[in-house]
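Quick log. Single chain, no ligands specified.
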Amino acid sequence: MLNAFVKHVSESTALPAEQAEAAIGIVLNAADRQGAPIADEIFERIPGARTLAARMGSRVGAATGVIARLIERTPGGRVAVAEQVIRDLQKQGLGNNEIGRLFPAIGRYAESAFGVTGIGHLGDMFGAVNAPASGVSSVA
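-> predicted structure:
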């Protein structure tokens, strides 16, 4: 299923598969660090996605400690993580157009593969700051 996810994102963004896989890992790592429900949904349903996210987080030097992760869930921390994701994606060779297509591609795959809705752009991936609920829903 991870291969199908990578293929979908690769085709939707016109990125080579290796670059699409790296981008997915970066996004999922950041979403997980933010406590975004979509990360848990994808990790639960796509074998290998959590490992990919951890591998890319390690490659880009993402925070791993408990205290750092708590800080990343504060309003200022969320902004810092979002900015870092863009920088990390750019370091992987993605331009603005590819980054702009990446988040909707991830959202469309999650919706078509297992019915998760309510995502599709950068703000959705990380959840709204101070929001009581994420708006992400699943039919499963």
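The chain has eight helices and no strands.
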